[in-house]
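cron nightly-structures :: item 1 of 1
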Amino acid sequence: MTEPGRFTLPSEANFAEETARLAELWGADAIRNSDGTELDDAVLALGKRIYSAYFPSRAHNEWISLHMDETPQVYLLTDRTLAETGGPLEVDLMAAFYAEQLQPNRLADPHRYWEVMDRTAGQVVPAERWSYDPQRDTVTIEAAEAMHEYTVAFLAHIIWDPVEMYNHLTNDWGDKEHEIPFDIYHPATREFVFDTFRKWLEDNPRTDVVRFTTFFYQFTLLFDRKHREKVVDWFGCACTVSPQALDDFAECYGYRLRPEDFVDEGCYDSSWRIPRQAQRDWIEFLTTFVRANVKRLVDETHAAGKEAMMFLGDQWIGTEPYLPGFADLGLDAVVGSVGDGTTLRMIADIPGVRYTEGRFLPYFFPDTFHEGNDPSIEALDNWRKARRAILRGPVARMGYGGYLSLAAKFPKFVDTVAGIADEFRDMHDRTGGQRAEGELTVALLNSWGAMRSWMAFTVAHALPDKQTTSYYGILEALSGMRVNVRFISFDDVLDHGVDPDIDVIINAGPAHTAFSGGDAWRDPRLVATLRAWVRAGGGFVGVGQPTATWWQGRFFQLADVLGVEQEVFHTLSVDKYGPEPLDTHFITADLPGAGDFGEPVVNTYAIDESVQLLRAAGGDVQLATNDYGQGRGVYVAGLPYSALNARLLERALFHAAHAEDRYVAWSSTNPECEVAVFPDRGTYCVVNNTDRAQSTRVTRAGGGVDDVALPGSGIAWRSL
C-alpha cells in the first residue's frame, strides 16, 4: 500500500466504525458528506480533513416557501399545437411539463415577457391577438390560421431543485420534503443566502473545505409529466432568467432579449447551435453577475480559515471556468464527476486553482449497488478511461460520492477501490504531478474555442449518444494521447491567425453546427488564412462534415485541402472520378479490416485522382489524405472511441504534421496499450486499457526495444 492521502471518502451518520475501516483501507485523508447524508460527531472525530457540501441556492424551504416569486425561472416552450380550423386556438402551457417541478409565472405581465409564435409562418403573433388564463394556465390565440402550428414561450418558476429531484426519484426518498431552489438575483434572497452562509460558517468550525455544490444556476434539466428528462443540456443557460434580470440586461446592453432568444425554436440554445450574439451577450451578463457573488462566498470562506472548492456540476452555470477571469475568484480547488477521459481532462485542465479533484464512478447509489450487480466492473472501467487521461492531465486528488453504507456491502468493490487508490497515489508519486510529454500540438477549431475546452460534442455530462459518438470519440481519443491539446475559435483565427506552435488543426462536426462552423466558412478571410497555413506546412484534419456550408458551388469549403467533397444534390450532373483505395498507408498501418467510422456521411467523394483514398464504403469516402503545398489535409468520416480509432487518429495527426519519422519512438505496437513518457522524472509507463492481459513492444527514442506484459487493467513503469 502507498502512503495514504489524496483520497476523499464519502460518509454518513451512524457509520463511524465502518468509515474508519474503509478510510484505512483506501488511504483516505478527507471525509465528505453527499447529497442526502450528514456527518455526525463520531465521523467528525476520526481526525480526517472534513469536506462539507454546501448548497447556496437550495435546502432552505423555510425561507423560499414564503418568497415563491424568487425561485429561479426558465423560459419553456410548449409543444407545437395545430390549428385544425381557423379561429380561436387554446394552448395548454403545462401539457408537456412536470407540474411538481415547474409552475408558470402568473404574476409577471405575459404580454411583456412571453411570446406566441406562428411556427408555420415563422412570425410572432401580436400580443393583442392572444390572452392568458392564469386559472387554467392556457393561452388562447384569437384568430389562428387553419393548418398552422403555434407555440407559446412562457416564463415558469422552478419549484423543485432538478438535481435534488433526480436524487429523490433515484433513491425513492418517498415523503422527504422537496427542496425548493431560489434565485439570488433578487436582493432579499441574495442577502438571505449570504447571511445564512456566514451563520453556517460559524456553526461548522470543524469543516476544513467548503465544497460548493455548486452555486446559483442549474444547467438546463427539465422533466415531463412522466418524470422523464424532457430537456437536458449540461451547458444550458435556460434556467437563469427573471423579469428583473431581463430588464437589467436591456438597460445594460441597449436591447431587449426575446423569449425566442432562450427557447430558440425548441433548441434551448444547445451548444451545438451556432451561438448568436444575443446568446453570447446573455452568457457574458450572467457570468459577470455570478462571478461577483461567487467571489463574495470565496472571500468569506477564506476569512473563516477554510478552503473553497467548486463542484463542476449542478448549479455551475455562469462560472465558466475556461473564460478569462476565473482565476480571480480565488477558488482553491475544483472537483468534478469523472465519467471518462474527456471529463477528466475537463476538470484537470481548468486554470487558476491550486488543485483539482476527480469524483470517480460508480456513485454509491442503489441504481448500481443492488443485489446481483458487481460494481467493481464499472469502477475498473471508469478507472481505465480516466487513467490514460490523468497521465496527460493530472488531477491531484480522487474520491467517490454517495452512500458509503451501500458500498461497504460489496467486498469485491471495496478491494477494487483499494487497488485503484494505491495506483492513483503511486502514479502521482512517480510523476510528481507532471503531465506526460506531448509530441505534437493539436488545436480543435470551432465556434466556442477555449470557452468549451473538453466540452465540445456534449449534450449530457459524459453521455454520448448515437448522434454524437462519431465526434465525441475524438475528444476521448485525444484525452490520453501523446499530444498537447488546445481549443481555438474562428474568431481567434480571424483576429490572430494560427499560432506558430500548432502542428495540426481539427475541424469536426455535422454541418450547420457550432462545431463544424456553418456560415463562418463563408468568410473569405478564414478560408484564405487556413489555406495559406496548410500550404506552408500545417496539417488540417476534418471529421464528418468539416468546413461545411453551401457557398459558391461547394459544400466543404476546404475541400481542396481535404481532398474530399460532399454531394448535396446540386452537382449531380457533373461526373466525378476518384482514385482506387490504397492497400497500405502510414495512417492505416494498425487498422485491420474496414474499420468503424461511425454514422455514415453519405455521398462524399475524392475531388480528383491525386487524392490518397484509404477507406471507402458504398462509394462514400471514409478516410483520405491529400497533399496541399507543403502541408496535408486528412478527412475522416467519423471517430467513435475505440483503441483502434484512437490509434488511427494518432497516426493521422502525425501524418498530417509530416512527423511520421517521429512516430515509432515511445509508441506501443499494441493499440490496446499506450505509453506515457516523463523525461524530467526519468521514467515512462505503459498502460493496459482493457480488462484482459496484453503484451506489447515499446521502441525507445534511442532505438532500443522493451517487451512489456501487462495483466488486465495493468500498468508498468520503466526507467528511461
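cron nightly-structures :: done
Residues 312 and 402 are 16 Å apart (CA to CA).
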